[in-house]
Amino acid sequence: MIGIDLSGKNALITGGTRGIGRAISLTLAEAGARIGAIYRSNDEVANRTLIELNALRPSEAHFILKADIADEGAATEAVREAGERFEGRIDFLILDAAAGAGGPMTGMASEDWRRPFDVNVNGAFYTVRAAAPMLQPGGGIVFLSSGAGHDPMANLSAYGASKAAVNHLSTVLAQELGPKGIRVNTVSPGHTFTGECDPNADPSTYTDSQRGIADTTALRRVGIAQDVANVVLFLTSDLSSFVTGQWVRVNGGRL
């Protein structure tokens, strides 16, 4: 039986205390990794996630850092502090922090257009640049993107364009960092339920929206955060040692 053991590995995760990021943090911690999670605003949720992490691995091995990665100085300082706590070694960088804006492009306010790029693209750039000197051979970077970065979706112009930029950025980084033994891949979730309970346990409780999504998904269920975290776990394991520069869509076959 093949198992995944990340013992001795350090993982820095942006947006790592709620939703998909929380699921990734807990999943990698369960596999033995030490987690540093960056979050922007919700102290209560962040501290609750830290308690959950330390319950998996006692002695307060994990930590959280508060920073808005859209701010160059804040992002750089958060990575620097994480590096100190990790004794200068980062094995995996997971970029889950994201911002979005909806509505028709022609009526969108300038600040709503800019924010997805400030977080999703610029924030990723600041974080990767600061972390790159500490990334270890055999480790890697995983970007969280979106189906909106691949497919044209009405009213998601800014978000989709920023995620399309992330998709391209990740493939370029794969070429640049590959000679150093560092893998770079992108995971693109579809519609994903990010609550802590799995609605698929009892499909009769689906909301109308969830039923509509399930009925138009090949696997006839809704995606959950753990589905995405499982793919990230694979991409941070030695099972993916020859996988880089790839986009993995986690959407249940929904077109």
Describe the structure.
By secondary structure, the chain is an alpha/beta fold. The chain has one domain: 3-Layer(aba) Sandwich (Rossmann fold). Helix content is 40%, strand content 18%. The chain contains seven helices and nine strands, in the order βαβαβαβαβαββαβαβ. The protein has a seven-stranded parallel sheet with strand order 3-2-1-4-5-6-9, sandwiched between helices. Strand 5, helix 5 and strand 6 form a beta-alpha-beta unit. The longest helix has 22 residues. It is globular and about 50 Å long. The mean pLDDT is 93.
List keywords for this structure.
Rossmann fold, 255 residues, 9 strands, 7-stranded parallel beta sheet, 7 helices, alpha/beta, two-stranded parallel ribbon, globular
- 3D shape: globular
Q: For the record, what is the CATH homologous superfamily label?
A: NAD(P)-binding Rossmann-like Domain
Largest sheet: 7 strands, parallel
The proportion of residues forming helix, as a percent range, comes to: 40-55%
The overall average pLDDT, rounded, is: 93
CATH architecture: 3-Layer(aba) Sandwich
Order of H and E elements = EHEHEHEHEHEEHEHE
Quaternary organization: single chain
User: Strand order within the widest sheet?
Assistant: 3-2-1-4-5-6-9
Quantity of strands, as a count? 9
Q: Roughly how many Å is the radius of gyration?
A: 18 Å
Number of helices: 7
What count of structural domains? 1
Would you tell me which CATH topology applies? Rossmann fold
Give the DSSP E fraction (strand runs of 2 or more residues): 15-25%
Q: Which residues sit in consecutive blocks of at least 5 with pLDDT less than 50?
A: none
CATH class term: Alpha Beta
Helix/strand class: alpha/beta
Distance between the termini: 34 Å
